[in-house]
Design the sequence.
């Protein structure tokens, strides 16, 4: 697995992934255009048509698109319906949140201790920070889990390493025991449930139900208005999404991509062909966990608060639903699904959608939107398994290049495979 | 003077007679006067101040006293806001009361409740009234009143209760009450007995007794206090030595004990170094050191040492000094709750009791575990059919449970009789969820039999739609689903082991479902066809079975059982739109841990999960959340090592 | 209606400076309560309360000659969404004041946004204290207005010697129980006689915990339960309590999160005598309360009940109206200055006063549960001033909040310095 290039077919070496898949280029261009547009219309850098809160919503949506991309890779391409990827997303958020809280509080504490008659000792500073951070949850000491919180590089490393390790261990255990299909789904769901229950406890050392808050205030940058910070994060999120898309497109386009799609379509056959199925699955599982964590690390500073409810099993199911609605097995499908559902959700629950008066009953969308959403999952699953992305198939293509275009599943393979189950 | 005041009241009364026509209250009655003497105490009764008033009423010997105290206890005594006259009153409606004279219980008439203030003794005061009433009530002809008196004694025992109780035991006719009286007499003797011999005899009576009241009477007797002395005295009240640094007494506590008794110099309080330094700041130096450099503990300690040398601060006790002090003294416990012989007798009896208490606590925990397991089993059994037998992932299973519970609630709206309503609710809940299950199978699931992962998503969509629908219809508040009266309360085996009837009912229901499942699957045509369709649909179809119909019925059956489970769960917990979500993950895990496709596996899975959870709760009683976390972690690990569950199907069935 | 001296002066000064306020648009009031998700159960009621208050005020002529308009958004019990919606209310809808939030975590989520944009939030729910924000008025009870008096009642009136502190595992019970543990130990209750247990939200399996509580009585001391159990979990807890036959005379339970609304989901016949401590009960006897209950029932239906956070909004809203009238503007800073010392009759018969630490002085009521799901008020104290920083924890005993004189919410009296101007979140 270390030498990935050797997995690529011979002709791939001469042609980079972008030229083989023009859709990647189109996507990147759209993303850049979108980011530029939002920047120009924003309050921070432009003419102020888009409010800061909406910029934040858009920035968060980009992060959700990134995690949906990861979900698509692991589910749409590799056939592992993980109902636990939001756990990795959350861990990423927690990891960066710890540094944000620590550093911001440190500045406040050092300032306030400067007024004391004696210069503070390191211990006093640390105690002061602990009281500030944990005072609200009735504790005043740093739990060991915060040992690295003072250092940005170490916490940034934790964003990648902690979820990566967790995914590696969990995946190794699960794939080794050949837990597959719905069993694996339930197991991943149990994992995220266990994690969220653990974090809900005060004793977890991460402030229990309160979680980490005030994350939108960057330490030392109090003077920078949120309208500017929000644009910075929008850029960072867009960059991450762009890079993530490239990475995923590269992963799925070569031989490696062919193997994982083969695993999705018939795991046993791939195993008999001599491939180490477990190693492939583990690689994809861990890689996507890391991508999800990076998305989380960008998402929560924009959301401002992270708490264990974010990791609840339902969040991961929603993630699967976004991908399903967008169209799994094609990368742009995942992005479209995440963006579409989360933005439409915001619109309906925000009270902007007009109520429908039927004369005898008024449909208030705040109440009925969730019902509609639920039924639309059913409808999509039943009638449009390819999701919104499936609409792209209606666009007439120049030459039917099945190998190149097939970032999506072969139409029949999936059904056949699941029919065997 | 008092008569003058009464005159004023009378005048005031004649004015208020405008609103209260028949106000012929006897203000001179002795009971009224007695109440007026303690008027303020009665009106604002606090446990701290009310005792004299109660004593006066009890000791007055007035025939009306008992009635007044009983009415006062029942919050039926009111006081006129202007005149201060006490009356006994019944509420007729929100604004009017019917008032009676406390002295002779004669009706005075109706009045607006605005003119009067209700006396509301809090439960502490009510307890004191009850204790005072005991002497009237013990001899009451009504057995219920005598029981009330015994309740009062057991809650607030007083020394005076002991002779009163002894007087009536012999004449008590009701055998149950007599038994209770004897027990109370023994308990009171332990506490208030005249001499040690009598108390020891009473203590011996409770050998092996599991009652909380017995332990409550015995435990205060064996209270000890830690003391220190150079030589451990050899008096009977002294217990064995304690070493400082052991679990019973930490070294710091031991030293604090010495300090408290002026046997050792006090330790300097934490923060003293800093405080001493701040006290001695001179310009920007302290003890000759620049203040700005004191940003480490080492620098501060050395500056502090300088201060000590200069005599500006008290030196801190060193570790050696503490050690020497602790070595110089012996620590031991002393009985302070009772004379040593009584305490030792109580100690011996308690030791015997504690062993069986531990045993019974284990039994109680086991009962809890069985009960929890039966709840999990009940929640999961429907899933064992739809998921276990048919292989359909139904994420809306929890919502079927919820639908069942709401059906129960709706039935109770129309049928107020709780027994009848539950009897109606069970079949109705089955029908409603059966219909919902069949509809879902026809509309959604049958198109997805070959795509299990997509079933998961589609049924999840149904789940959130149903949840929101329930919210839209029933609102977000929890709705009451009340068990019939005969399910109230608990089956009490002893004071430690007990289980509520509702849990027993759930347990029985779970057993009934297990039997039902086994009979349907193994003894009926339907069960045969279900098994045939599950194992090989094409073959089954060619034998003349209609797989579509069978799938529909099986799914409906599983959903219907979930509905009944919903009624049961709603009875013991809550009915909200989100109740289903609480059970869905647990239910799936129960089925998966047990082994898919086998009802005995589900049973074992539920037992394992329930027992595990209670076991972890027992290990860590202050944090129930931790128990759930560790239980799920355990399940994850368990599945890693037994991916097909406890009872793994072998051979062809496993491939189905 | 009494006005503070300061308020009157401000009104006079501003009144002369701005003779007539032209009203070209209604004054917008933000309502930030969850209408969906887990907290909707409690918060929807408050949204309705706010709509009713706004309607009543408009019928009475509005504020400063303008009509009020309630802008309702739904943060859906999703804590990050609270921050997003608060920003939306302040920047897109440009509301002048926000009434909202229930859980502490949602408040902590909103705080940075409110402080950054200098908004004004009225928070109506009893909470754990240990916080003071320049931009928030806390109209619910601080621990010393609910937990401490209730504990005193246990100690003095019921002579409870052994305490079981049962709570849901989140910040309010954690902090409250910490404060109570310290308080009880101050009062001479040994640490061994305090049993603490935390359960998850929505917990339903209470048999073992109830058995543990009963077992506490084995050493002959009177046991009392202080419950900070939140929301739905109470249903199962009280059902188990009733099933175990625990009478309020044997083991009294006092709850801080159980009000009329929560009891509506329960059959209370077996719970008669158990207690709750609040600053308001529907059964309070006063003319203002009668009118309030009647208006609520007329609007929402006969079976609906009123509760403590509703009264908090009632007081908070009316104080805001008076402060805005006194200040002659709805500008946040002016209104905040005019708020200090505002007095308004509360529904239990006394007068609520807004203190410089942004808390109210309110009476503490203790009620016994009755068969009809209402509370019988058996104890009512004089007005207790709310304390942002508890005196019973060493870290916060040295802190005071005074936004009027000191201009600081977290002022260390030991070092005489302001720890921070923004609140801790």
Sequence:
């Amino acid at each position: 697995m270390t030498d990935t290039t050797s997995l690529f077919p011979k002709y791939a070496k001469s042609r980079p992934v972008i030229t083989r898949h023009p859709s990647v280029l189109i996507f990147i261009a759209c993303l850049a255009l979108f980011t530029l547009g939002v920047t120009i219309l924003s309050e921070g850098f432009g003419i102020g048509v888009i409010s800061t809160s909406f910029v934040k919503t858009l920035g968060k949506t980009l992060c959700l698109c990134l995690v949906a991309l990861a979900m698509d890779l692991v589910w749409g391409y590799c056939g592992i319906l993980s109902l636990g990827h939001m756990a990795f997303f959350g861990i990423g958020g927690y990891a960066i949140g710890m540094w944000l809280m620590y550093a911001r509080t440190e500045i406040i504490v050092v300032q306030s201790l400067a007024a004391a008659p004696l210069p503070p000792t390191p211990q006093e500073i640390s105690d002061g920070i602990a009281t500030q951070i944990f005072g609200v949850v009735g504790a005043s000491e740093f739990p060991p889990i915060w040992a690295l919180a003072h250092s940005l590089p170490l916490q940034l490393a934790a964003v990648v390493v902690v979820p990566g390790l967790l995914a590696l261990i969990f995946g190794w255990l699960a794939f080794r025991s050949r837990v597959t299909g719905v069993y694996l789904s339930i197991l991943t769901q149990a994992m995220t449930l266990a994690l969220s229950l653990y974090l809900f406890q005060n004793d977890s050392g991460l402030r229990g139900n309160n979680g980490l808050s005030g994350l939108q205030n960057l330490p030392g940058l109090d003077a920078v208005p949120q309208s500017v910070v929000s644009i910075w994060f929008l850029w960072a999120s867009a960059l991450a999404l762009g890079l993530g898309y490239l990475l995923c497109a590269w992963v799925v386009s070569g031989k490696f991509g062919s193997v994982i799609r083969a695993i999705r379509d018939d795991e046993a056959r791939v195993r008999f062909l001599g491939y180490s199925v477990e190693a492939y699955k583990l690689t994809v599982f861990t890689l996507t966990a890391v991508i999800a964590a990076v998305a989380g690390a960008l998402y929560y500073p924009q959301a401002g608060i992270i708490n264990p409810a974010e990791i609840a099993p339902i969040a991961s199911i929603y993630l699967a639903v976004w991908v399903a609605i967008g169209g799994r097995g094609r990368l742009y499908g995942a992005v479209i699904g995440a963006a579409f559902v989360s933005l439409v959700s915001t619109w309906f629950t925000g009270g902007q959608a007009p109520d429908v008066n039927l004369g005898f009953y008024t449909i208030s969308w705040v109440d009925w939107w969730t019902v509609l959403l639920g039924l639309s999952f059913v409808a999509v699953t039943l009638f449009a398994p390819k999701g919104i992305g499936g609409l792209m198939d209606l666009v007439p293509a120049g030459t039917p290049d099945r190998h190149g275009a097939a970032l999506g599943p072969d139409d029949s393979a999936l059904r056949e495979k699941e029919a065997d189950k | 003077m008092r008569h003058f005041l009464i005159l004023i009241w009378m005048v005031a009364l004649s004015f208020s007679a405008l609103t209260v026509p028949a106000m012929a209250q006897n203000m001179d009655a002795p009971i009224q006067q007695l109440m007026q003497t303690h008027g303020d105490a009665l009106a604002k009764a606090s446990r701290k101040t009310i005792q004299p008033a109660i004593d006066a009423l009890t000791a007055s010997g007035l025939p009306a006293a008992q009635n007044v105290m009983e009415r006062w206890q029942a919050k039926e005594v009111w006081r006129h806001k202007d005149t201060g006259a006490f009356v006994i009153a019944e509420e007729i409606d929100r604004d009017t009361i019917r008032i009676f004279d406390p002295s002779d219980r004669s009706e005075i008439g109706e009045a607006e409740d605005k003119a009067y203030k209700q006396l509301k003794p809090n439960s502490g005061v009510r307890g004191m009234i009850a204790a005072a009433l005991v002497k009237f009530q013990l001899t009451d002809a009504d057995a219920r009143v005598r029981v009330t008196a015994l309740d009062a004694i057991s809650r607030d025992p007083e020394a005076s209760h002991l002779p009163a109780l002894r007087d009536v035991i012999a004449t008590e006719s009701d055998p149950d009450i007599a038994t209770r009286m004897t027990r109370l007499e023994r308990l009171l003797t332990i506490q208030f007995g005249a001499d040690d011999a009598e108390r020891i005899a009473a203590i011996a009576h409770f050998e092996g007794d599991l009652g909380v009241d017995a332990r409550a009477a015995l435990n205060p007797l064996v209270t000890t206090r830690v003391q220190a002395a150079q030589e451990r005295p050899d008096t009977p009240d002294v217990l064995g030595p304690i070493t400082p640094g052991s679990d019973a007494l930490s070294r710091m506590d031991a030293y604090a004990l010495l300090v408290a008794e002026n046997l050792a110099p006090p330790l300097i309080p934490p923060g003293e170094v800093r405080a001493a330094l701040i006290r001695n700041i001179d310009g920007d130096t302290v003890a000759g050191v620049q203040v700005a450099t004191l940003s480490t503990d080492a620098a501060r300690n050395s500056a502090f040492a300088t201060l000590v040398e200069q005599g500006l601060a008290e030196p801190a006790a060193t570790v050696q000094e503490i050690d020497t002090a602790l070595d110089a003294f012996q620590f031991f416990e002393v009985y302070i709750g009772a004379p040593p012989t009584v305490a030792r007798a109580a100690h011996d009896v308690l030791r015997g009791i504690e062993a069986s208490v531990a045993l019974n606590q284990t039994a109680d925990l086991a009962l809890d575990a069985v009960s929890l397991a039966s709840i999990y089993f009940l929640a999961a059994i429907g899933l064992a059919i739809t998921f276990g037998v048919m292989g359909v992932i139904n994420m809306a299973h929890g919502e079927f449970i919820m639908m069942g519970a709401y059906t129960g609630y709706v039935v109770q709206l129309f049928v107020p009789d709780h027994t009848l309503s539950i009897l109606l609710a069970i079949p109705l809940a089955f029908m409603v969820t059966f219909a919902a299950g069949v509809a879902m199978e026809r509309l959604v699931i049958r198109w997805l039999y070959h795509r299990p992962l997509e079933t998961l998503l589609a049924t999840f969509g149904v789940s959130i739609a149903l949840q929101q629908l329930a919210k839209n219809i029933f609102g977000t508040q929890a709705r009451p689903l009340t068990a019939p009266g005969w399910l109230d309360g608990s089956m009490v085996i002893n004071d430690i082991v007990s289980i509520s009837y509702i849990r027993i009912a759930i347990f029985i229901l779970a057993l009934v479902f297990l039997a039902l499942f086994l009979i349907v699957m193994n003894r009926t045509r339907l069960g045969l066809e279900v098994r045939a369709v599950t194992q090989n649909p094409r073959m089954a179809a060619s034998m003349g079975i209609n797989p579509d119909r069978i799938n529909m019925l099986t799914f409906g059956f599983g959903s219907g059982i979930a509905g009944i489970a919903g009624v049961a769960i709603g009875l013991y917990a809550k009915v909200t739109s989100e109740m289903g979500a609480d059970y869905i993950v647990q239910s799936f895990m129960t089925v998966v841990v047990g082994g898919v496709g086998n009802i005995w596996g589900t049973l074992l899975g539920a037992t394992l999960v329930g027992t595990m959870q209670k076991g972890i709760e027992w290990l860590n009683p202050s944090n129930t959340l931790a128990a759930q976390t560790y239980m799920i972690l355990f399940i994850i690990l368990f599945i890693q090592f037994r991916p097909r569950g406890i009872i793994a199907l072998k051979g062809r069935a496993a491939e189905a | 209606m009494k006005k503070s001296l300061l308020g009157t002066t401000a009104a006079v000064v501003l009144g002369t400076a701005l003779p007539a306020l032209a009203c070209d648009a209604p004054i917008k009031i933000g309502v930030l309560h969850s209408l969906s998700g887990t907290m909707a159960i409690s918060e929807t009621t408050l949204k309705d309360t706010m709509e009713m208050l706004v309607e009543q005020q408009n019928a009475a002529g509005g504020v400063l000659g303008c009509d009020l308009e309630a802008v309702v958004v739904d943060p859906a019990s999703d804590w990050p969404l609270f921050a997003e919606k608060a920003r939306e209310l302040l920047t897109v809808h440009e509301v002048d004041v926000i009434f909202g939030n229930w859980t502490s975590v949602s408040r902590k989520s909103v705080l940075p946004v409110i402080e950054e944009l200098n908004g004004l939030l009225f928070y109506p729910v009893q909470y754990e204290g240990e916080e003071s924000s320049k931009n928030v008025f806390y109209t619910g009870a601080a621990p010393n207005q609910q937990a401490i008096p209730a504990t005193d009642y246990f100690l003095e009136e019921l002579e409870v010697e052994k305490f079981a502190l049962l709570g849901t595992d989140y910040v309010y019970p954690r902090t409250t129980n910490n404060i109570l543990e310290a308080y009880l130990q101050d009062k001479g209750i040994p640490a061994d006689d305090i049993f603490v247990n935390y359960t998850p939200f929505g917990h339903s399996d209470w048999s073992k915990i109830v058995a543990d509580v009963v077992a506490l009585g084995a050493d002959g001391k009177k046991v009392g339960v202080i419950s900070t159990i939140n929301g739905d979990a109470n249903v199962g807890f009280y059902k188990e309590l009733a099933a175990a036959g625990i009478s309020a005379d044997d083991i009294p339970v006092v709850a801080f999160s159980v009000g009329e609304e929560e009891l509506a989901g329960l059959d209370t016949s077996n719970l008669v005598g158990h207690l709750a401590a609040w600053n308001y009960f529907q059964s309070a006897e006063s003319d203002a309360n009668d009118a309030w209950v009647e208006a609520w029932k007329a609007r929402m239906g006969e079976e609906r009940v009123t509760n403590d956070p509703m009264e908090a909004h009632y007081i908070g809203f009316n104080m805001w109206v008076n402060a805005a009238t006194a200040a002659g503007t709805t500008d946040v800073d002016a209104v905040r200055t005019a708020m200090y010392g505002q007095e308004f009759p509360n529904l239990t018969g006394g007068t609520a006063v807004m203190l410089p630490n942004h808390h109210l002085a309110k009476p503490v009521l203790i009620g016994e549960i009755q068969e009809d799901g209402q509370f019988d008020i058996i104890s009512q104290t004089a007005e207790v001033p709310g304390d942002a920083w508890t005196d019973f924890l060493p870290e916060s005993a040295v802190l005071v909040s005074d936004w009027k004189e000191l201009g600081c919410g977290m002022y260390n009296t030991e070092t005489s310095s302001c720890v921070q101007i923004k609140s801790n979140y």
About this structure: Residues 15-22, 651-656 of chain B have pLDDT under 50 and may be disordered. Chain B has 27 helices and twelve strands.
